[in-house]
Amino acid sequence: MEAPPDNDVLWARTLHFRHPDGSPGLAGVSLGVRVGEILAVAGPRGSGKTTLLHCLSGLLPVRDGEVWFNSSPVHTMGPTARERLRRDHFGWIEPAPVLVPELNVWENTALPLLLRGIGRRRAKVAALEWLERLDAGEHARRHPRELQQAERQRVAIARALAPGPTVLFADEPTAPLHHGDRAHVLRTLTTAARSHGITVVLATHDARTAALADRTVSLLDGRRVRTLPLPEAAETEGRAACSLSV
Amino acid sequence: MLALRLTRAARPAVQVRRLLVAAASAGTGFLLLSCLGYALAHPGAPGTAVPRLVWCVAPLAATVYFALAVARTDPGTRPRPGLSAVGLGPARLMAVSVLTTVLSCGLGSLLALMLFLQLRGDLAGTPLDGAAARFLATDQPLPLPAALTLLTPVPALAAATVAVALRPRDPRPPAGPPRSPGRPGAYGHPAPRETFGAYGRFGVRPRTPAAARQAAVPPPSPGATATTVDEPDENGTGVLEADEAGAPGRLPSPAATPAGLPWGIAAVAAGLAVQAYSGRPATGPALTHLPAGATAVLAGWVLTAAGLVLAAPGLTHLCGRLLQSVRPGALRLLAGRALMAEAPRIGRPLGVACAAAAATYAMTVLYEGPATSRGPLAALGALVVTGSTAATLLTAAVEARQCRAETTAALLRLGAPAGMLRTAAVLRAVALLALFGPLTLALAHLAALASAR
């Protein structure tokens, strides 16, 4: 097996995963994520993008295959060690922004910092800075349910970026948004990541979103593929194929 | 059948909750039946039989409250997005929930009837005698219609309460300006009609001199407050402005104190005062024939309990606020804010439980003597009331936990240590105990002092 390049911050080798109910998840995925790059994991729904991100970030235990983060084996770590790794080195953005409803926006943003044991004053300063950078500064004292979805998603991104993670996992960060908000959210995310040298692993099923990334890894049915079959253009001739009588 | 299937397939914890409802229902049913037995044995003394029946209201209310709390937390009857498509929508789920409640309460009532008949010796064996014969009426045949009538209220009331509480409702449109931009009348909210309303009514607004009205640009038209609210361009900014101006806005923020704390405190004070001023009752009057002074004491007790229930959400909120005050770290922040947010849900059962505990304590202090002097029925009633309220409180805690499950999962994905979340929960419980424990004790002492003065 070839040695991974030195500048890979995170890599996976022949990653297999099967869900607890027996349904197939991943079937031998190998990939490397370089320092500071934005890597898009593309693929249609159900192709194993989220599972791959869960395995890479240590949310799911890896039984078959290897995941290495900065030369430390994630696949041999216990739950506690993985939890610490996630807290100290990883950021996570979900498809829907799940903020803690009873905390206001800046407290939500500062929460990862507070969880790392950073003082309240420093955490607040950092959180407010990030909120300003992501155009959410004016909402700092409001509560999540007073915001719109796109604003909440920006706050979630600020929360993920605030502790300065080494790797940021973004699982379809723009899925519930309209196209205008989508572009805004993605631009803020990619700009912030590039300017701060944060590695981003971005799962998306949208080719336009994937185009913003430095590199794209395509998944299909839990396998890495070179090319993705595009959906065929709707044609009138194609209708006949749907008929059972043919 | 569906209700039965869903009932059978539940997890043990849920079954235990339902069995507890059945137990509470059985206790209440037995109390009601023993009232019947007493009335049968003493046909000439309705004056002592009626208060016994009236005393059954307390266990009945506690049982219904508990049944409602259990129905709320029942995972089998939570709305499931997937099942709505196959016809298991909110209305059907409510029906399932009502059926489950009727099942558990009916089971309890049946158990009570069996036990009563067994003790009477109707089923097998010999009837009990001695003190128990007073309420079992062993020498008389039991009128079955009367027994069934007395056993119906628990399942019927519980079912009605569950049906009303869980009836399908559309989420209410927010009281403030809606955030969704769009023409008035979109999303089903009718555009407000052009009426004069309260604005145009004489004397509602302070009169403005004509010159000042001229100076104001544009002049406010009658009904302006009502119509501009829904206009699209004002939508986005309405809430913003309200917030930035320092006003809390029209959205009830979780930081808002639940209303009712002042009323609750006033009611508690009034109740204690009524108890203190309502003449001195004979020491330890029998619960079944109360003199006039004792009735006033009882009214004072009811007032105090109601005040405690009213004030409890506010006190819970205050507890959370104290917990997260003065530069909190992540632990105190999460614990305190969660307590503040859950204050309405947790507070009310907590108030009821405290009232029941205080009443039990005061009773024990007032009626110093052998427990048998009050009879086994009073003990059973106290057990049903305190047990039901305590179980309701625990069920409310379970409900709060279910509601926060998504947030907890997100926190765990964020890397929050699971141990810290557990510590936060323990911290919440300790804070509540530290506030409500002494409060309950103090109230019970005050009430006992006032009554036994």
Write the layout of secondary structure elements.
The complex is a heterodimer of chains A (246) and B (453).
Chain A: E1 8-18, E2 24-34, E3 38-42, H1 49-56, E4 64-69, E5 72-73, H2 79-89, E6 90-93, H3 105-115, H4 120-133, H5 149-161, E7 167-171, H6 179-196, E8 199-204, H7 207-210, E9 215-220, E10 223-225, H8 239-242
Parallel strand pairs in A: 3-8, 3-9, 6-7, 7-8
Antiparallel strand pairs in A: 1-2, 1-4, 4-5, 9-10
Chain B: H1 2-8, H2 12-41, H3 46-55, H4 57-73, H5 81-84, H6 90-120, H7 133-136, H8 144-151, H9 153-165, H10 197-200, H11 210-215, H12 224-227, H13 232-244, H14 261-277, H15 292-323, H16 330-341, H17 343-366, H18 375-403, H19 405-414, H20 418-451
Helix pairs in contact in B: 1-6, 2-3, 2-4, 2-6, 2-8, 2-18, 4-9, 4-18, 6-9, 14-15, 14-20, 15-16, 15-17, 15-20, 16-20, 17-18, 17-20
Notes on the protein architecture:
- The complex is a heterodimer of chains A (246) and B (453).
- With 246 residues, chain A is of the alpha/beta class.
- Helix content of chain A is 34%, strand content 24%.
- Chain A has eight helices and ten strands.
- In chain A, the strands form two sheets. Chain A has a six-stranded mixed beta sheet, sandwiched between helices. In chain A, strands 2-1-4-5 form a four-stranded antiparallel beta sheet, covered by helices on one side.
- In chain A, strand 9 and strand 10 form a beta hairpin.
- Chain B is an all-alpha fold.
- Chain B is built from 20 helices and no strands.
- In chain B, helix 4 crosses helix 9, helix 14 (261-277) runs antiparallel to helix 15 and helix 17 (343-366) packs antiparallel against helix 18.
- The A-B interface holds A 59, 83-84, 86-88, 90, 92, 94, 98-103, 107, 111-112, 114-115, 117, 120, 138, 141-143, 145-146, 148, 159 and B 179, 239-240, 243-244, 249, 251, 253-255, 327-330, 333-334, 337-338, 340-341, 406-407, 409-418, 420.
